[in-house]
Amino acid sequence: MGLVKRITRSRAVQEALGLLVASYLKFVHRTNRFVMEPADAYDRIGPMMPVIAAMWHGQHFMIHFAKRPEDRAASLVSRSGDGEFNAIALRHLGIRAIRGSGARGRDIRKKGGISAMRAMMRALGDGEMVVMTADIPKISRVCGEGIVTLAQLSGRPIVPVAVVTSRRMDFNSWDRASIGLPFGRGAIVLGDPIEVPREADRETLETLRQAVERELDAIHERAYALVGSKDPGAKARDTKPAPAMTASSRA
């Protein structure tokens, strides 16, 4: 491991980076004018708590803006070194981290997927909302089976969530990540809850997996439209790479 990586992986540095990220995101939240759609989202979703909040990779940085102060929440975070400072940032944002991730062509036990599933089940059973990305790493905006399986086993509904800002940095990463900038407009859009019956067969699970995928695409398209932009990650797997990094400056 190189010197720079050793420094950035040290506990003290990760604590500082996590606090810095959390402080920045709080600043972005305070300095953007947000609208919520539907306007009565909390009235509709509140009685269903705890729910499974679904998001896309790359659109997750500001997802905590959609959480009410009274809602207890836990979020799935990978076991990687980068995941550690993400977990620290979440702690400063009032969200508990559950370590683990899904796997694609790799040992799910090594990635912590099984233990993470159990931990998320316990969290939901204890009344905590669980926040997780619906797509697995390296396959952008294709919903995996994990979130649907969690909904089936827990009996809790999936609620797709999109949080975007008019001013942001868009990155040329595999997930077309975006992070908000201060002093603009923002939109929080919640999709229709998706219930997964405990007795669902494979065909039904596949239908519901596709429903989660479609709903997440739809609410992100709507959220970006509300701030006068186009979704930078839309159909990312079907398009040519974008410039390395661009700044959107709509106010």
Mind sketching the topology for me?
Blueprint: H1 3-8, H2 11-31, E1 33-37, H3 41-45, E2 52-55, E3 73-77, H4 81-92, E4 96-99, H5 108-111, H6 113-125, E5 129-133, H7 146-154, E6 158-165, E7 167-171, E8 178-180, E9 185-190, H8 202-226, E10 245-249
Short structural summary:
It is built from eight helices and ten strands. The protein has 251 residues and is of the alpha/beta class.
What gyration radius follows from the Cα positions, in whole Å? 18 Å
Q: What ranges have pLDDT less than 50 throughout 5 or more consecutive residues?
A: 105-110, 236-246
Form type: globular
Terminal CA distance reads: 42 Å
In the sheet with the most strands, the strands line up as: 1-9-6-2-5-3-4
Number of strands: 10
Please provide the ordered H/E string of secondary-structure elements. Answer: HHEHEEHEHHEHEEEEHE
Q: How many domains, in number, for the residues?
A: 1
Largest sheet: 7 strands, mixed
Helicity level, as a percent range? 25-40%
Structural class: alpha/beta
Discrete helix count? 8
Query: How much of the polypeptide forms β-strand, as a percent range?
Result: 15-25%
The overall pLDDT average reads: 88
What labels would you give this structure?
about 250 residues; 8 helices
Overview of the structural elements:
The protein starts with a helix and ends with a strand. Helix 2 packs across helix 4 and helix 6 runs parallel beside helix 7 (146-154). The strands form 2 sheets. The chain has a 7-stranded mixed sheet, with helices on both faces. A 3-stranded antiparallel sheet has the order 8-7-10, with no helix packed on it. A hairpin with a 6-residue loop joins strand 7 (167-171) and strand 8. It is 38% helix and 20% strand. Mean pLDDT is 88; it is low at 105-110 and 236-246. By secondary structure, the protein is an alpha/beta fold. It has 8 helices and 10 strands.
